[in-house]
C-alpha cells in the first residue's frame, strides 16, 4: 500500500526548466507561423478574403494529429521514453518545414507550396507540442502541476517573443525588409531559417536533460488509476446506439447542402465534411466496441471523447470561445494594422511592410507580457481569487485589448492593448491545463490533452470557414470588424469560465 501511495519526487526550478524548455523552441515555430504567414500568403498573391481558407490547414492538422499522438504516446515506451520520441520526430520535421517555407517564391506554384509547408509545419509542431502538455503531468506531482504549467507558459511567451521579433530585429541589423513583387524579404527568410535551428536545439535540450518515469514507476505513484477503470470509457461505447452518429452525419450533410443555397464561401464545405466524418468514425468505433474490440485506436479515442470528465466538458466551452478569438487575431491583425493604422494594402509598398513588421512588435509585446504574467501575476491573482475567477478576469482584460484595436488608430497606443491580450494569453495557456492535470487520470493524460485540443481546433476551423462568409456578406474589405467579434467572444468565454468547478488553486492549495 505504501508503494502505491508514493509521491513523485519534487522538482526544483532546474527540473521545471528542463521539462518545458523544449516548448520555448516549439513556440518560436508557432510565432513565426502566426505572425508571418498572412504576410507570406499576401505577398505571394492571396487576397484578404482568401486568407482563412489558406490558414485552414493548420487547425485541421491539429484536430487530426493531437488525439492520435496522445493515444500513441500514452502507450509508448522505448529507449527514448514515453513522450520524448514524439518530441524528436516533431522537431526534425518542423525544422525541415521552416527551412523550406522561404523557398516558396521559387516554386512553380508558390502559393500552393506555401500552404503545403504551413500544413507540414503545423502537423510537425503538433507532434511535439501535444506530448509536452502531458509531459508536465507525467513528471510532476499534483501540487506542482500549476507551477509546471506556469513555467511552460513563460517559455511559450519567451519563445513567441523571439519568433515574433525576428524580422523586426533583422531589419534593424540592416537586413532588407522589402522584396520585389512576389518575393519574400530577407528578414522573413532568415527568420524562418534561424527559427528552425532554435526550435531543434531547444527540443533536444529537454530530450537530453530529462529522464521519464517507466510505466511501472508511474503505476506506483499516488493517484494512478487502475487499468480496469481506464478502460471504462471505451467499454461504455458498447451500450450506445448509432443515433448520435447518425445525427452528426446528418448535420454535416445539412451544412454541405446549405453552401450553395445561401451562397456561403466554399470553405464551409470542409466544416460539413468534418461533421459527417466524425459521425462516421464514431459509428465505426461503437461497432467495434459492440463486438468486443476495445483495444483499437478508433474505439479508444471515441470512447474517451464521449466519456470525458465533467470538468473537461466545462473547460471545453471556455476553450471554444477563447481560441475562436485568438484565431481571428492571428489571421486579421496584419490586414487590420497595415490597412487602418499604416494606410496601405499594397504588399510591395514600404508602408505595408512597415505595418507588417509592427505586427511582429505587437505580437512580441503580448507574448512578453504573457511570459512575465505567468510567473509574476497569475499565481498571486489565483491565490486571492481562485483559478476560476482569475481566468475570467484575464479573459475580460483581453477583450478590452481587442476593443482597443477596433477603436484606436495609433500604432503606439496599440501596445497598451497587447498588455491585456498578453495577460489573457498567459491565463489561457496555464489555467485550463493546471486544472486538467490535477483532475484527469494520469495514465491517460496524453489522450485527454489531445482531445482537449479539439476545442482549440474546432473554433479555429469555424473561424476559417464561416468568418470569410460573414465578412464577405456584411463587411467586405473591412477586416477591422473581426476585432469586435474577438472581443465579444472573449467576454462570452469569461462568463462560461464561471461555470467550471474545481477545488485546486493555482498554487496547489485546496
What does the model show?
It is a single chain. The protein has helices at 13-43, 51-55, 57-74, 84-100, 110-139, 145-172, 186-209, 215-220, 227-230, 232-236, 243-261, 268-290, 297-306, 310-341, 350-376, 378-385, 387-407, 414-439, 445-452, 454-474, 481-497. With 510 residues, the chain is an all-alpha fold. Helix 12 (268-290) packs antiparallel against helix 20, helix 14 packs antiparallel against helix 21 and helix 16 (378-385) crosses helix 17. The longest helix is centred in the middle third of the chain and has 32 residues, at 310-341.
Mean of pLDDT: 85
- Structural class by sheet pairing and helices: mainly alpha
One letter per element, helices H and strands E, the order comes to: HHHHHHHHHHHHHHHHHHHHH
Helix count equals 21
- Which percent range describes the beta-strand content? under 5%
Helix content: over 70%
Rg from C-alpha positions? Answer: 22 Å
Q: How many beta-strand runs?
A: 0
Outline: globular
Spans of at least 5 consecutive residues whose pLDDT stays below 50 are: 504-510
**How many angstroms separate the termini?**
24 Å
Q: Major beta sheet, specifics?
A: none
Amino acid at each position: 500500500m505504501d508503494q502505491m501511495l508514493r509521491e513523485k519526487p519534487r522538482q526544483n526550478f532546474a527540473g521545471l526548466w528542463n521539462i518545458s524548455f523544449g516548448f520555448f523552441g516549439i513556440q518560436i515555430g508557432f510565432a513565426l507561423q502566426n505572425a508571418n504567414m498572412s504576410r507570406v500568403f499576401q505577398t505571394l498573391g492571396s487576397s484578404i478574403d482568401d486568407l482563412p481558407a489558406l490558414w485552414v490547414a493548420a487547425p485541421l492538422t491539429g484536430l487530426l494529429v493531437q488525439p492520435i499522438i496522445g493515444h500513441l504516446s500514452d502507450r509508448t515506451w522505448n529507449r527514448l521514453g514515453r513522450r520524448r520520441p514524439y518530441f524528436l520526430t516533431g522537431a526534425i520535421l518542423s525544422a525541415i518545414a521552416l527551412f523550406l517555407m522561404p523557398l516558396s517564391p521559387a516554386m512553380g506554384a508558390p502559393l500552393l507550396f506555401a500552404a503545403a509547408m504551413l500544413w507540414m509545419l503545423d502537423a510537425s509542431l503538433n507532434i511535439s507540442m501535444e506530448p509536452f502538455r502531458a509531459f508536465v503531468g507525467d513528471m510532476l506531482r499534483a501540487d506542482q502541476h500549476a507551477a509546471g504549467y506556469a513555467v511552460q507558459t513563460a517559455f511559450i511567451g519567451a519563445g513567441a517573443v523571439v519568433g515574433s521579433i525576428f524580422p523586426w530585429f533583422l531589419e534593424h541589423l540592416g537586413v532588407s525588409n522589402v522584396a520585389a513583387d512576389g518575393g519574400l524579404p530577407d528578414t522573413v527568410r532568415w527568420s524562418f531559417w534561424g527559427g528552425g535551428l532554435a526550435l531543434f536545439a531547444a527540443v533536444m535540450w529537454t530530450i537530453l536533460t530529462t529522464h521519464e518515469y517507466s510505466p511501472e514507476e508511474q503505476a506506483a505513484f499516488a493517484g494512478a488509476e487502475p487499468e480496469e477503470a481506464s478502460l471504462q470509457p471505451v467499454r461504455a461505447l458498447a451500450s450506445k446506439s448509432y443515433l448520435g452518429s447518425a445525427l452528426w452525419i446528418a448535420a454535416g450533410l445539412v451544412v454541405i447542402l446549405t453552401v450553395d443555397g445561401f451562397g456561403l464561401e466554399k470553405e464551409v464545405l470542409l466544416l460539413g465534411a468534418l461533421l459527417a466524418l466524425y459521425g462516421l468514425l464514431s459509428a465505426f468505433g461503437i461497432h467495434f466496441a459492440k463486438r468486443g474490440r476495445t483495444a483499437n485506436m478508433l474505439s479508444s479515442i471515441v470512447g474517451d471523447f464521449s466519456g470525458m470528465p465533467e470538468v473537461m466538458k466545462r473547460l471545453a466551452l471556455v476553450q471554444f470561445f477563447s481560441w475562436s478569438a485568438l484565431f481571428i487575431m492571428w489571421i486579421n491583425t496584419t490586414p487590420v494594422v497595415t490597412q487602418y493604422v499604416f494606410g496601405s494594402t499594397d504588399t510591395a509598398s514600404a508602408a505595408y511592410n512597415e505595418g507588417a513588421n509592427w505586427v511582429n512588435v505587437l505580437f512580441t509585446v503580448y507574448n512578453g507580457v504573457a511570459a512575465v504574467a505567468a510567473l509574476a501575476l497569475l499565481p498571486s491573482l489565483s491565490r486571492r481569487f481562485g483559478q476560476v475567477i482569475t481566468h475570467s478576469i484575464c479573459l475580460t482584460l483581453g477583450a478590452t485589448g481587442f476593443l482597443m484595436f477596433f477603436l484606436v488608430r495609433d500604432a503606439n497606443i496599440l501596445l497598451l492593448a497587447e498588455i491585456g491580450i498578453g495577460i489573457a494569453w498567459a491565463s489561457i495557456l496555464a489555467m485550463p491545463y493546471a486544472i486538467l492535470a490535477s483532475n484527469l487520470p494520469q495514465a491517460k493524460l496524453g489522450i485527454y490533452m489531445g482531445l482537449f485540443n479539439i476545442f482549440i481546433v474546432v473554433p479555429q476551423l469555424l473561424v476559417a470557414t464561416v468568418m470569410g462568409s460573414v465578412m464577405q456578406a456584411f463587411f467586405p474589405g473591412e477586416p477591422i470588424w473581426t476585432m469586435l467579434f474577438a472581443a465579444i467572444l472573449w467576454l462570452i468565454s469569461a462568463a462560461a469560465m464561471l461555470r467550471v468547478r474545481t477545488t485546486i488553486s493555482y498554487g496547489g492549495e485546496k
